[in-house]
Amino acid sequence: MLTTHPESRHLRHVDMQNAGMQRLVPVPSDLQPWLMAAVVVNAPAALAQSHFPAMVASMLVVRLAGQVVCRGAPVPQSAWMSASTTATVYEHSGPVQAVGLVLQPSAAAALFASARGVVNTLRPLADLVGPGWAEVEHAVRAAADDGARLQVLCDFIRQWVAPPSPCEARRQQALALLHAANDDAKDAGQRLGLSQRQFERRFVAHWGMAPKQFQVIARLNTALGSALAAPDGPVVELAVDQGYYDQSHMARDVRRLAGQPLQALVQGSRRPVTEHWPLQVGAQAQQGQLGQPPEGSASLRRR
User: Fold this and answer.
1) Spatial CA neighbour of 61 closest among 89, 97, 99
2) How is residue 297 annotated by DSSP?
């Protein structure tokens, strides 16, 4: 049975009157190791698509209204959206309303064993959580407002990870792999007592992508967040700050992994109703990390 934790109560009082189509909500402090942010989306019928860049984070989403299709297949009403190695477009039918949680990169496989090694995938949350998810989803849909809905989701995560759950041990294992990946290639395995090849195989088995690919996407996510936070900043300085060889190197990664040139993404994200709202969410979540670099972005080297 779901119970309300004191740290979740502030979600009921979050200002939900923002005129934009998406609202980001800070998560309770005790859940920050697991969650980057909570989000509410109200997309009008005129918005036909949502554009997501490649990303190392994942999301839990409960859709309250509207229909969404991805790669020709309907998106489940309650879904886990995995990390991705390519830009992804979601097609809307009618106005779409949803609430969700943005998971820390290390959280997905720690929370759900069957999420280990999975990328570019949508799964019904009932498949990951099991029969208990029906009660959670019912509580979300029965809640009085968006703040209360997010409170239900946060309380679910809190109770799911509470001891004697193995989730925290699995999260620490994921973080150990990330920390090792930031070493030189020859040292990465040694940190964990593995050969380089064994380390790379273990990393792929856990994250669904090679260490270098993870770092490239983590760097892209950080660069996009920084670009949206300072849209008029010098692009050359942004590229240098993020560890790219030069501006053209960053431009190639952005186009390849986000689907459009950087300037088009920044300009598109400035509109109050935009298919690039996931970029707005990512940038705001990044700014809300209290100065902490996103998981996987530390010590990124020029690749």
Assistant:
1) 99
2) -
Residue pair 26/154 in contact (Cβ under 8 Å)? The answer is no
With contact defined as beta carbons under 8 Å apart, do 86 and 120 qualify?
A: yes
Sign of CA dihedral 257, 263, 264, 270: positive
Structure tokens at 169: 């041990």
pLDDT at 196: 87
Mean predicted confidence (pLDDT) in 232-246: 94
Distances (CA, A) of 227 to 55, 75, 171, 190: 16, 30, 29, 36
Helix (H), strand (E), coil (C) string for 29-96: HHHCCCEEEEEEEEECCCCCEEEECCECCEEEEEEEEEEEEECCEECCCEEEECCECCCEEEEEEEEE
In angstroms, the CA 96 to CA 234 distance is: 36
- 151: helix, coil or strand? helix
In this predicted structure, what is the pLDDT of residue 158? 98
What pTM does this model have? 0.90
Contacts of 147 (CB under 8 A, 6+ apart): 11, 12, 13, 14, 16, 25
Instruction: Give the C-alpha separation, 270 to 26, whole Å.
Output: 21
* Ordered structural domains, the chain, with CATH: 6-165 (2.60.120.1030), 168-287 (1.10.10.60)
